[in-house]
Structures are given as structure tokens and as C-alpha cells.
Amino acid sequence: MCIAVVAPSGDLIYFEKMDNCQYASIKVAQHKARASAIYRRPTLAFEKGLAAGNTYLMTLDDMIGSRGGN
User: Fold this and answer.
1) Within its chain, how far is the Cα of 10 from the centroid?
2) From the CB of residue 38, how many other CB atoms can be counted at a distance below 10 Å?
3) pLDDT score for 56
């Protein structure tokens, strides 16, 4: 598990990870936090939008369609 805390601008403020976490999880946690902050919505909204067929969402900078960013 990795936890990233960002400012409203998306800049990283704090990061913590458990021992033996996947290396990819470090970047994913930061990406989810940044996307949630700059778009002012949980990343679950992007996941649901993509599932509904709104593929234009994939063109947005820093968008990630995976729940967990709040």
C-alpha cells in the first residue's frame, strides 16, 4: 500500500509506503492523488465515465481511470 498526499495544485506534500510494495504502486498512488486534486473529483468518477463509454476522458492530461484517488 502506498499513500500520497498532494496540494490542490497536485504537488506532492507527503508520501508513505509499506515495505515490499510494488514499485509501480509508488507512481500510481502519486498519479491518482494528483489527478483527484487537479480535477477536484475522485478518480472513481473517471473510472465510471470510461465504463460508460466516454473515451474522450483518455485525452485529458494526467487523467487516470482507476478508483482510489480522493
Assistant:
1) 10
2) 18
3) 92
User: How far is the C-alpha of 2 from the C-alpha of 23, rounded, in Å?
Assistant: 10
Taking the alpha carbons of 39, 40, 42, 48 in that order, is the dihedral positive or negative?
negative
Q: How many residues does the chain have?
A: 70
pLDDT digits (tens, 9 = 90+) for 17-49: 999 999 999 999 999 999 999 999 999 999 999
Cβ–Cβ contacts within 10 Å for residue 51, how many? 9
pTM of the model: 0.88
Which residue is it, cell 494528483? Answer: 34
CA dihedral 19, 23, 26, 43 (to 10 degrees): -120
